[in-house]
Design goal:
This is SAM-dependent methyltransferase. The protein has helices at 3-16, 20-30, 66-77, 115-125, 143-159, 169-175, 226-230; strands at residues 35-40, 56-63, 83-87, 100-106, 126-137, 180-182, 185-186, 200-206, 217-219. By secondary structure, it is α/β, with parallel strands linked by helices. It has a single domain (3-230), classed as 3-Layer(aba) Sandwich (Rossmann fold). The chain binds S-adenosylmethionine. S-adenosylmethionine is lined by residues 13, 17, 40-43, 46-47, 63-65, 68, 89-91, 106-108, 111-113, 162.
Length: 245
């Protein structure tokens, strides 16, 4: 792996994503995790301080980049809950079926090679009724912004080591067959150098009790869904809360 992706990028990412507004969203997301928890795309471990040791029995984290894992080591050394760190990718999780109560993905589906495969794996490893928590930056519903996100994505993929600005992640989550939904997403107005990462979409959906069936899921938001398609994001009675602070 290159010097940039394994040394400079992990350092850069730590700084770029330590904005207080991102931290607040990480805290709101991860604070919902309970039981046996898996986080996919752990990066440098920025979410770790926000897990509640009173609610999380054990945290398993998986991350493919050795550079990220090296940066995460310092945070892991200070962990106040039991953590198992694994090197690997979300498309092929080295865990058994129905092992986890909660799976967390934070700002990662933008970067994975195959987000649909990752979401299939999330469903496989979740226990029946288990919860999938996600926070992602997505394609805007505003045509002008979306156009720029599409134009900038080839550059972003280089600078951000595979990061896409133009993924319709809410639609991918809906298509993955989770049940229940959640609420909340919002058009995040430009803030500083992170402006192209807006809007953000967050949500929590559940694995159905019937296993891998084709459940209906939705994540509400003005994000990738756009104002137009946001109306198709319905809340459901099994909504489990969550969303953006
Ligand atoms: C923008 S970072 C986010 C890291 C962390 N979740 C956070 O909130 O700061 C995206 C992470 O996804 C990881 N990643 C890329 N491809 C992946 C894959 N196929 N499976 C799991 N993680 C992946 C990257 O190495 C990187 O650490």
């Amino acid at each position: 792996m290159g010097l940039y992706s394994e040394k400079l990028f992990p350092w850069l990412l730590d700084r770029a994503l330590s904005h207080p507004r991102i931290e607040a969203r990480r805290a709101a997301l991860v604070g919902q995790a309970v039981g046996e928890v898996l986080e996919i795309g752990f990066g440098s471990g920025a979410t770790l301080p926000f897990y509640d040791p009173a609610k999380v029995h054990r945290l398993t984290v998986i991350e493919p980049s050795e550079g990220m894992n090296r940066r995460a080591a310092a945070r892991l050394a200070k962990a106040v809950l039991p953590v198992r760190a694994v090197t690997g990718a979300g498309e092929r999780l080295p865990f058994g079926d129905a092992e986890f109560d909660t799976v967390v993905v934070c700002l990662t589906l933008c970067s994975v090679r195959d987000p649909a495969a990752v979401l299939r794996e999330v469903r496989r490893v979740l226990k029946p009724g288990g919860c999938f928590l996600f926070l992602e930056h997505v394609l805007s519903g505003e045509p002008k912004r979306a156009l720029w996100q599409r134009r900038l994505t080839p550059i972003q993929k280089l600078v951000g080591v595979g990061c896409h600005l133009d993924r319709d992640t809410a639609a991918l989550v809906r298509a993955a067959g989770f049940e229940g939904v959640v609420s909340a997403a919002e058009e995040e107005r430009a803030f500083g150098a992170l402006a192209p990462l807006a809007p953000l979409v967050a949500g929590s959906v559940r694995q159905g009790f019937s296993g891998g069936g084709a459940g209906a899921a939705s994540a509400s938001g003005t994000g990738s869904g756009s104002a137009a398609s946001a109306s198709s994001y319905s809340s459901s009675s099994s909504a489990v809360g969550g969303g953006l602070p």
